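Long-time lurker, finally posting.

We've been working with Phosphoglycerate kinase (Dyadobacter endophyticus) and I want a structural starting point before designing mutants. I don't trust myself to interpret raw outputs, so I'm hoping someone here can both generate the structure tokens and explain anything notable. Sequence follows.
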Amino acid sequence: MTTLDSYDFSGKKALVRVDFNVPLNDKFEITDDTRIRATIPTISKILNDGGSVILMSHLGRPKDGPTEKYSLKHLVNPLSLILGKTVKFADDCIGESATELAAALQPGEVLLLENLRFYKEEEKGNEAFAEKLSKLGDVWVMDAFGTAHRAHASTAVIGKFFTDKVCGYVMQAELDNAERLLEHSERPFTAIMGGAKISDKILIIERLLDKVDNLIIGGGMSYTFSKAQGGSIGKSLLEADKQELTLELVEKAKAKGVNLILPLDTVIADKFSNDAERKVVEAGSIPDEWEGLDIGPKTIEIFADIIKNSKTVLWNGPMGVFEFPNFAIGTDAIAKAVVAVTEENDAFSLIGGGDSASAINNAGYGDRVSYVSTGGGALLEYMEGKVLPGVAALQA
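Top reply, 14 upvotes:
Generated this for you. Predicted structure of Phosphoglycerate kinase:
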């Protein structure tokens, strides 16, 4: 795989696939620019070499072609400010405007193309569409790890049309950090798995059982474990068809000598709302009309204690409904524990994208852990041992 540092971009037009799928508010203002800032070193390296940059990305899930809400034009001014230079914009990603602006691009200049997903061909991995995109640049740089698990036109198929294919800094860092975690981790190794569904994490949990010393289970998925073990979970999240599986995972953990830790207590609410009535009950003792929305104080203490005695930590998924401040206490406590072990115990900590990344960044702790992944689903699939099309395309 060709790395960015080993390639000279002088006089080249680099077509760079980035992941600018950032959240926007109702005024089209970016509420978290982490993904944009992550790509700046890649863009800067190309420009400093004397190359020019053509950026392509998706934004959201537009259903029927061009939509104001999902236009990348909203990113032009913020990106210009971050880069410290005017970014040009093509109101299409193929076609006349893209072709003309790309052709006229001079060394040191940056062009942003309109949303790739305004064309259905992008997600279908259409070859003709990928070929049209490829004609805009001399070299393809793949730096969108968050979409590397998709065989889309711009993330994988496009590789067929380039001799020069380069792995960007974001991609390289993601792969290096995942590899370090899976193959070179110091013990004790603790994995913290949260989020809503056990079904999203089955494969990664099974693989981690061969790697970790401690497996902490929190968040919505913990109620399926609780119910399977005979507990009452009220109206809490439940994947009824996964109960048997949770019991099997508990047995597998025992057989492999892995310490699998489930919540001891839970913060429950009488409705799904930040201003709901709250109380703390023992795990598995949730009344019928109530639901668990966070881990309780005893659980926080036990989880934090295990984390603080670790040398490697992987965290994927929040401990509760962290979007509600009253039910973000558990997630915030885990974030603080991960920061503490990183800073005080020199542990290696990887935050596994998605909601965990949002939680740690929103709390202001992003630069106090070892690495925050920009790709939730892609990271999980890579750790499950799957081949990511966006990585394979760089290696072909």
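Before you design anything, note these points.
The mean pLDDT is 95.
The two ends are 8 Å apart (CA to CA).
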